[in-house]
Amino acid sequence: MTLVVALVPIVTFGVLLAVVTVPFVSLGPGPTFDTLGEFDGKPVVDIEGTETKPTSGHLNMTTVSQRDGLTLGHALSLWMSGREQLVPRDLVYPPDKSREEVQEANTADFQRSEDSAEYAALGYLDYAPALTVSVVNDPGPAAGKLEPGDAIDAVNGQPVANTDDFMRLLEKTRPGEEIVVDYRRKNQPAGTTTITLGEHPDKDSGLVGVSVLTVPWAPFSIDFNLANIGGPSAGLMFSLAVVDKLTTGDLNGSKFVAGTGSIALDGAVGPIGGITHKMLAAREAGATVFLVPADNCAEAVTDPQDGLEMVKVESLESAVNALQTLSAGGEPPRC
Predict the structure, then answer these.
(1) 51 near 101, Cβ under 8 Å?
(2) Could you list the pLDDT tens digit for every one of the 335 residues in the chain?
(3) 122: closest CA among 39, 60, 213?
(4) Domains in the chain, start-ordered, CATH in brackets?
(5) What global pTM score does this model have?
């Protein structure tokens, strides 16, 4: 009887460990991907329609792993491992949003990071800006007529150099009118298309059904072949891979470089979350250099990794300069 009584709390605690879930999410080092390499048989950064240069070494983007639906026992084991961080679930999955909505937002952030990475790299390489289609609404007047990535050169014979020119011309139109658009398409000859304008929900003018940006444009295509990755933090490493593939010489000096950071259209590098987890992932993958967004340096130095140089970057240009300095044996900015 004494033995049975003693076992009851032990068994009860064991059941609690195995069954009861906790309102926490575990964050830890995730997989890394070489932006100069391949994923599922395709180049991670695929450039078609122009000559690319040989590359070597690594430019690895890093990620943070997330574990949700943790039982009490699983949460305790992850916490005791010293590799994982437990954070309140509401910080990762806000109560007013479903898990699917959060995932959709992360996917959208990743898509925007791909676009920003392309434009930032082309801007660094001095490609001229053009009025560029970013989104084509389907259904919509321009569906099947224009595609994302097209550069619009003229409307009804009048040149358009930027979004202001485009909007001024459209303000004079009305629903049902036809406009003739001269455009350039990547890896194809320039073309002309006629679009019948739709009704604008907020204005009297006609609706084309596209979103446009004034950004650097190139006649070749750049595609990023990574799936199931969320958030904006791959932007810097994607941009560096584009620059490396389009310029002569190894940008990384054949070193194993990893890093992280969001990137803006003008090349500014922004801070991200989980920097210490990403540094651990990079070191375990074999990296010897890690590019740290300047605003993440204070956190990064709290948990340095042996054998991993932390290089501070503020922009795409500063990241390129830092890597070139390292390759030449010089001293780049450090955290």
Answers:
(1) no
(2) 766 555 556 544 444 444 557 677 778 899 999 999 999 999 999 999 999 999 999 999 999 988 777 776 666 766 676 677 777 777 777 888 777 877 788 888 888 899 999 999 999 999 999 999 999 999 999 999 999 999 999 999 999 999 999 999 999 999 999 999 999 999 999 999 999 999 988 889 999 999 999 999 999 999 999 877 778 889 999 999 999 999 988 899 899 999 999 999 999 999 999 999 999 999 999 999 999 999 999 999 999 999 999 999 999 999 999 999 999 989 999 99
(3) 213
(4) 27-67+98-125+221-328 (3.30.230), 129-216 (2.30.42.10)
(5) 0.88
Q: Which residues are catalytic?
A: 233, 278
Query: Are residues 265 and 87 in contact, defined by beta-carbon separation less than 8 angstroms?
Result: no
Asked whether the beta carbons of 36 and 47 are under 8 A apart, the reply is: no
Q: Which two tokens stand for residue 283?
A: 């070191």
CA separation for the pair 223, 284 (Å, rounded): 28
